[in-house]
Amino acid sequence: MYCKNCGQQNNEEARFCKGCGSNLGDNEVVNIQNNNQQGSGFQQGNVNPRWNNNGIEVKNNLVLAILSTVFCCNLVGIVAIVYSAQVDSLVRNGNYEKAERYSKNAKIWSFVSIGLGVLFAIIVFIYTIALIMIDLNDYGYMR
Questions:
Q1: Which subcellular locations apply to this protein (predicted)?
Q2: Phi, psi of 45 (to 5 degrees)
Q3: What confidence tens digit (pLDDT) does each residue in 79-89 have?
């Protein structure tokens, strides 16, 4: 059995396409060999697992989550990665509201991670300046 959306060959018992994740029970199954014999060719469907029913892309924000985890705050960034990793599968399963909520949560947690990283960098900078000033004062350079 071939998927109507992506043309991936699947087992006869399969309920979902292993190529694009679409529901094979709801789609009309297309026999590619018969189409090619008739000269019409197979038309691949315009299916993108990151677009919801309204044609709006649901971004997973995974790159932002990974960068905020690596460069800023690891613990908070991991929460962002967990949310963003689930977005694509939720869209594929048709749960658009939850996918959009998880996408927003991933973005929020990424920005919280970035904010904590910037705050930590500012605190370290101020602390370093204070230590330098104390050190200069101890050696008589600030008198």
A1: Membrane
A2: -70, 160
A3: 999 999 999 88
